[in-house]
Structures are given as C-alpha cells and as structure tokens.
Design brief:
Two copies of one chain form a homodimer. Helix content of chain A is about 45%, strand content about 15%. Chain A is built from twelve helices and ten strands. In chain A, helix 1 packs across helix 11, helix 5 packs across helix 7 and helix 9 crosses helix 10. Chain A starts with 5 loop residues before the first strand and ends in a 6-residue tail after the last strand. Chains A, B: This is Glutamate racemase.
C-alpha cells in the first residue's frame, strides 16, 4: 500500500481524458496533474525540444512526491526513449503500449489505423508497438493536426459541420485502407469520437488510449505493490498544476465532464 | 544613416507577413527576425506569460544589435504597455497604431470590424486606438482563434471548404453589424484575405497590418535618421532565428512567397 499520488503530465489539458479513465478505474488514487498550458501544443515541436520539456515536466511531478509518472500525451509517449525512462526514480507509463496491444487484439481483418499529431505519427511509435504485439497486423497512420485546435475551440458536437468536413478529409485513408480498428493516438481525440464514428460508420472500432493506459497503470500498481488503500472521506483532493492561466475550468469540463474535482494552481514555466 | 538591422519578432512565423511588407517598402534595410516557434501560439496565453515572452524575445534582438524593434504580432502589440516600450533602448513599433489609423480613415459608414486572436480581441487594443484616431468611429471585434492553425496547416486556398465554413461562422457578425472596413488583426490573417474577401464580398475593405506597420517603420527611420544607405551588392543577408526546428522553409513560403531570402538558425529557448 502506498498513499503517494500518481503524477500525470501532458502538454496541456488533453491528458485529462486519461485522468478521467484513471479516476473511473482507480478511485482510491490521488492524482497530481501537470499541464504545460504555457507551451501547448507539443505535437509540432522537434524531438530535442520535446525531450527538454519531458524532463522539466516529469521533474516537476517528482518534486511533488509522486509514486508513478504517466505521460498522458501521445506526442511525449512517442518521443521519450529508454534512457529517459530508466533515469526516472519511479515507474513510468506512456499511452502507447497497452493501447497498441488492445488495437492488435481488436482487429479482425489484421489492419489498424492510427491517427495522432504530426510528431506522434512521424515517430512511428504506435506502428512499432503493434508490430511487436503481432507482426501480422499492418498499421497505417495519418497525422490529424487540426483536430487539437478544433477540440480546444469547442468544435466538438457530433454533427459539427467544420469538424465533420475536416474528419472526412483526414479519415478518407481509413476507408481506402479498409481498416476495422482505429487508435485515437492523441489524448484530445476521444472528445471527437462521436464525430469520427459518424464519419466512419459502425464498422470501425475506436481505441481510446485513456482506457488502456489506466489499465496499464492499475497493473503496475498491483505488480509493484504501490496501490493506495481505500480512504473514504479521508481521500486527499487531486491537484492540478498549469503553466498558464488559461480558461481551465471550461476546458477541463470538455475533457473530463463532471469527473473534474480538485485544486488548480499556476506554476511559472521559468521555474521548471 | 544607420546600417544596423531592424529587429522583428513574433510568436512564430506569422510575422513574416510584416517582413514581406518591410522588404517591399524598405529594400535597403537588413532584417533580423526572431520567431518563437518553440512556444507558438501566443494568442491564447495569459498577460503575465506574454510579458515574459516579449521581454525575452526583444532581449534576444537587442543582443543582435538592432536599431529598432518591431513586434510583428497582434497579440504582443496588444499586450505590451508603455513601461515596456520606454524600457527599450531603441525605438519600438507594434502593429496596432498605424493599422487602426488606416481603418479609421478608410471607413465610410463609421464602423470598423476587428478580427484577431483571443488575446488581441480581449485586450481591446485596436478598438481603443481607433477611438483615439476618431471617436465617432465605432468598432466591433471577434476572436477567430481557429484561423491560425488553419493557415499553419495549409488550409489557405481561396475556395478551401473548411476555411470557408469557419470564416462564414466567424464573420457573420461583420454582416450583421454592416461594417465596411475590417482589420486583419493577426499577422496570420492576411494569408486568408482571399477567403475572407469571398465570404464578405467586395463591399468590405480589408486592412493588412503589415502594410501600415511597414509605413510606420519607414516614418520612424526617417524622423530619427536611422535609415540604411543603399548598399547594392554589399547589402548584408537577412537573418532568421527560430526556437524550434519546425518546417521553416515551407511555412515561410506560405507567409512570404518568393520574398524569403536569408539564413535560418535555431536558438535554444532556455538561453533567452
């Protein structure tokens, strides 16, 4: 049993879709979230910039005394390498491995589509992870960079005409390649699942990384005896840190719905 | 006569639309451009973050020995205050004053529309500047945050269906308010002038801040005897500094067309 919080970080607030799944699966765990809203978006940054940011963001969480670090960001998870993960003094969990395994298990036709930011797609991280799970499954990927600002600007209704038009453009490759499973490889994208489902029809299973990342976290906590005990009314509040005072409450409600509950504090990005 | 370069900075590469106008009007001037591509976009950041970034960005230009600083960014120009400008050891020029004066002079019906990022519109900077020029002119403003990622992702054709749909949504207030003049209050927006013109029709005059900012720079150089002499073949090359190795050449061609010519170097954002 370990009462220390789980640390979750993301470029901005998209990682809250992962927090939502963590809280649903592991209600006894306290969350410390770090969203780098002063430097969002990460998806178009270079590798060296991303490695610097990942080090600063995880360093902040470690100073908060976390027992495990979740990179709730497809871009960061696709960028950090083994040496980064080995250097951390606590277990690490990205959004790639369990998500890729779930997609490889879900496809009946042996073809998985991947959508994400430019950095995530260029990294080939999901495709490699799928290949490790099942070399017979083929993967096709498409960067969908405009989905992130569409979500953050509230173009999220299932029948939104702008988002539908963009989705039809981005997702035409899914139809052409006849995949039956699609990884939503950016933490913003589950918000657009209704639009994506409408564009693709019922024949394509959508894989939400938050769901499988939460399961991977649960597995690590069990294996390493790090799970928190049930604390009832004594459960400490979650803490949310952001680097820019954006309109957190309204954006948080886009990502987490009613699941959001906790204190929000601003951190100076120059102190990271 | 002063051979030192003009320093131009922006959150990213949108300021290149201002550089294009500077080079057309002042071909003897050398330009040093700083684009903070590691921290773009600025338009949704808080005031305190923006003030920090403006200080770092202009400090970098001053270390390059510039004779004048242009904030080629609607967001920064709307955020910095008199104390910031007075603290600079060289003249400063933002994109607000001359642009607002041009719009106030252009309107025949006494109504000017303003579009920009969320930060620019919330600041009220253009509206105040218009009021200073002519208190009888009324101004209406609308944030168009999605225009920036649309430009950066190449949705810039005059008949692009996605950008047209977004523009119809954003610009409906222009029709309702019956303005006849519209300030493109973000340096990205002149790229979308053909789409905006198609949506609004010929009855609305579009005001490109780059044009009027270049005229203001020319005026400052003349008044303060800072203009560069004609140097013919001895004209030094322009220098472009960015904080993240984005796909500079292709994006620069979106903003500047064939006018781009110079060396590009990357600066570590942690050294600012």
């Amino acid at each position: 049993m370990d009462t220390r919080p789980i640390g979750v970080f993301d470029s901005g607030l998209g990682g809250l879709t992962v927090v939502k799944q963590l809280k649903a699966l592991l209600p006894s765990e306290q969350i410390v979230y770090f969203g780098d809203t002063a430097r969002v978006p990460y998806g178009t940054r270079s590798r060296s910039t991303l490695m610097t940011y990942a080090g600063q963001d995880s360093g902040f969480l470690l100073r908060q005394g976390v027992k495990l670090i979740v990179a709730a960001c497809g871009t960061i998870s696709s960028t950090v390498d083994d040496s980064f993960i080995r250097a951390l003094p606590v277990p690490y969990c990205g959004v790639i491995e369990h998500t890729a395994a779930a997609a490889a298990a879900a496809t009946r036709v042996g073809k998985v589509g991947i959508i994400g930011t430019t950095a995530t797609v260029n990294s080939g991280s999901f495709a490699r992870a799928i290949h490790r799970c099942d070399p017979k499954v083929t993967a096709v990927a498409r960067a969908c960079p405009l989905f992130v600002p569409l979500v953050e600007n509230g173009y999220i209704r299932p029948n939104d005409p702008v988002t539908t038009l963009v989705a039809q453009d981005y997702l035409s490759f899914i139809r052409e390649k006849r995949v039956d499973t699609l990884i939503l490889g950016c933490t913003h994208f589950p918000i657009l699942a209704p639009v994506i489902s409408r564009v693709l029809g019922d024949g394509v299973t959508l894989i939400d990384p938050g769901v499988y990342t939460a399961r991977q976290v649960a597995q690590i906590l069990n294996e390493q005896h790090l799970a928190a005990p049930y604390r009832g009314d004594g459960q400490p509040a979650d803490a949310y840190y952001i680097t820019d005072q954006s309109d957190f409450q309204s954006v948080a409600s886009i990502f987490m719905g009613d699941a959001f509950c906790g204190q929000v504090q601003t951190v100076d990005v120059n102190d990271l």
